[in-house]
């Protein structure tokens, strides 16, 4: 289980707004910032509380893990909240992630169909479990291979907790900087979890117009190439 941490969320920029209208606000959440508040005043600062301070009727419809960066949509009205939650629940929302994983990714593309359950002995960690796990499906594709690390595209169909992290671990390719699942050399290879919600596609809750929002990340260049040094993990 990951050790306790000193929560010190980034503050610049306070809110990285990608899009806003009267119904929704779309933001690029930095790694290290909670999406929703944790327990106690020390964990009160989060993306949602920052939005709520400016938009009183704001409602959360989905979240990213603390260490994951990328695109988040928040509803600014109740009717928008209900419609967006319906789209997420019925898997109409399309999500695309980028990650840097350890090792040589073979085969270069495929699907990971492993059911996931809470690891009751190490909560909040998750584990692959065919007996009690809930169905979880992720499609992956290699984008760039370095000697001991790979840039991959991850397309989750389901939205289980820690799904991408556990699925890549199950393939033998933990994500760099993952404090929950990566062995020590892979954890130490990055100062943050190299997992980024690069794009989000959904329909506007009122107009029904198809929308897609994207956000850049520090570990991928503008040309779509891995911006991370080659590593020798020996693990």
Structural write-up:
This is Pseudouridine synthase. Belongs to the pseudouridine synthase RluA family. GO terms for molecular function: 23S rRNA pseudouridine(746) synthase activity; RNA binding; tRNA pseudouridine(32) synthase activity. It catalyses: a uridine in RNA = a pseudouridine in RNA; uridine(32) in tRNA = pseudouridine(32) in tRNA; uridine(746) in 23S rRNA = pseudouridine(746) in 23S rRNA. Strand 7 (116-118) and strand 8 form a beta hairpin. Strands 1, 2, 3, 4, 5, 6, 9, 10, 11 and 12 form a 10-stranded mixed beta sheet that branches. A two-stranded antiparallel ribbon has the order 7-8. The longest helix is centred in the middle third of the chain and has 12 residues, at 78-89. It has a single domain (17-214), classed as Pseudouridine synthase. It is α+β, with helices and mostly antiparallel strands and 235 residues long. It is globular and about 50 Å long. It is 14% helix and 29% strand.
């Amino acid at each position: 289980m990951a050790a306790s941490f000193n929560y010190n969320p980034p503050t610049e920029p306070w809110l990285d707004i990608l899009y806003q209208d009267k119904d929704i606000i779309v933001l690029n959440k930095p790694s290290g910032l909670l999406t929703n508040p944790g327990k106690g005043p020390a964990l009160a600062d989060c993306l949602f509380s920052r939005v709520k301070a400016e938009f009183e009727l704001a409602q959360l419809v989905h979240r990213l893990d603390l260490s994951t960066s990328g695109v988040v949509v928040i509803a600014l009205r109740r009717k928008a909240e209900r419609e967006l939650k319906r789209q997420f629940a019925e898997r109409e929302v399309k999500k695309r992630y980028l990650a840097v994983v350890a090792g040589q990714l073979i085969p270069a593309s495929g699907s990971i169909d492993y059911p996931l359950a809470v690891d009751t002995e190490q909560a909040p960690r998750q584990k692959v479990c065919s007996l009690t796990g809930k169905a979880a499906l992720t499609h992956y594709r290699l984008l760039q291979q370095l000697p001991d690390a790979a840039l991959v595209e991850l397309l989750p169909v389901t939205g289980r907790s820690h799904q991408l992290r556990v699925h890549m671990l199950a393939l033998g390719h933990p994500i760099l900087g993952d404090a929950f699942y990566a062995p020590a050399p892979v954890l130490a290879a990055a100062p943050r979890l190299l997992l980024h919600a690069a794009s989000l596609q959904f329909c506007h809750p009122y107009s029904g117009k198809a929308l897609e929002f994207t956000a850049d990340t520090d570990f991928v260049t503008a040309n779509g190439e891995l911006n991370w040094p080659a590593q020798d993990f020996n693990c």
